[in-house]
Amino acid sequence: MATKVFDVTDIDLRHLRSFLVVAQKRSITGAGAALHLTQQAVSTHVRQLERSLGVDLLVRTSRGVLLTAAGEELAAGGATVIDDVARLAARVRAVANAETGALRLACCPAATTLFAVDAADALEAAVPGLQVTLHGVRSPRQELELLVNGSADAAFMWLPVGDFGLHTAVVRTDPRAVVLSTRHPLADRPTLTLADLAGDPVVRPDVLASPEAERYWLVDPRPDGRPAPDGPVVPHVEDCLLEVGRGRGVWFAPQPLHALMPAGNVRWIPVTDAKPFDLAVVWNDGAPQPLVTRLIAEVRAVIGRAGRPQSA
Question: Taking all residues of the chain, what is their mean pLDDT, rounded to a whole number?
C-alpha cells in the first residue's frame, strides 16, 4: 500500500478498536463475535483504518490473520490510545455533570418499575438543583450499551453483568423462582429444587448483557456439573411466559418479576437451592461519584420502606 500523508484526524476510534480485537483474537470472525459485529463490518473497519494510515496491517490466511510489522506496532500502542481517550471522555463528562447537576439513569422497567421513580424523586429532593433523567430501555443489553458508550451514568441491573470495567453496588437481593406451565407435573408443588428440574429445557430471552450473565440466569452448569438443557431462545423477556405457557420449557427469574408480569397459564415457584439474584446500581468511570453514592443510599432507603430484602 502506498505511503500517504498522515493526519491523526483520519483515524476513527471504532476502527482502531476493531483492529485491536482482531489482533488479540488473530481472527476477524472471533473479533466480530467479541464485538457483536458482523465479520463484514470488522473487515470494513480494518480496511478503512489501513487506508487512513496508508499501511497494510494484516495478512489474511486460511487459518486467520497475521499482523504485519506495522500491525504489530499499532497493536502494541493502540490500546493505550483507546484508554487515554476513554479516560479523557470520562473526565469531561464528570466535569459537565458536576456543572449542570445531572445524573442519567438507564432503567429496564422489568427490574426497576417498583422503585426507580421514587428513587429519582428522592435524589432530586435531597440534592437541590439536581436533574435526574430516567432513560427507559427494553433489556439489560441496552442498559449496558448506554453505560459503555457514555450515554448513561448509571443503571439498575441484576448481577452478574460481565467484565466491562463497570462498578456495582448491590441494593437488593431477590430469591430465584422458576416459571412453569400450569400443566407441568410439578406445578402444584410449593417449592422446587434444581434436581426436580434437571430434565426441563430452559427458555432463554436473548437480552442479557454477557455470556456470564446468561449462564447465571440459566443456572448453567447445574450443581452436579451437567449443562442446563437448552430450551427456546426468544427475543424479549415477555416472550418467556408464552413459551412456558405452551409447555416448551421453564424459565428462571427473580421472584419480584411475578408482580409485574401476568400469571396467565403459568406458575411461579421458589427454587430453594438456586442462588438468588442481586439487583445493583451499576455505573461507569464517567459518572459523578458523589451523586452515585447518594443514589445508592436513596435506592436502598426506598426499597427498605417498601419492605423488600436488602443486602448489606
Answer: 86
Of the pLDDT bands very low, low, confident and very high (cuts 50, 70, 90), residue 9 is low
User: Per-residue pLDDT tens for 161-192?
Assistant: 988 899 999 999 999 999 999 999 999 999 99
Tens digit of each residue's pLDDT (9 = 90 or more) over 130-142: 899 999 888 889 9
Q: How far is CA 191 from the centre of its chain?
A: 30
Q: Exposed (0-12), middle (13-18) or buried (19+): which is 215, by Cβ within 10 Å? A: middle
Q: Amino acid identity of 100?
A: T
Q: In the beta sheet, which residues pair with residue 266?
A: 181
3-state secondary structure at position 175: coil
- Return the number of other C-beta atoms located less than 10 Å from residue 163's C-beta: 8
From residue 220, how far is each of 67, 104, 149, 235 by CA, in Å? Answer: 37, 34, 29, 20
Which residues contact residue 302 at a Cβ distance below 8 angstroms, ignoring those fewer than 6 apart?
Answer: 115, 118, 119, 122
Cβ neighbours of 187 (radius 10 Å)? 14
* Separation between Cα atoms, residue 241 and residue 161, nearest integer Å: 23
Say if CB 160 and CB 216 are below 8 A apart. Answer: yes
Residue 280: phi, psi to the nearest 5?
-135, 155
Nearest by Cα to 240 from 260, 211, 270, 210: 260
Q: Which comes out higher in pLDDT, residue 90 or 120?
A: 120
Residue 305 to residues 194, 299, 309, Cα–Cα distance (Å): 32, 10, 10
For the segment 185-217, what is each residue's pLDDT rounded down to a tens digit? 999 999 999 999 999 999 999 998 899 999 999
Q: Count Cβ atoms below 10 Å from residue 136 Cβ, excluding itself.
A: 14
Pair 124, 252: CB distance under 8 Å: no
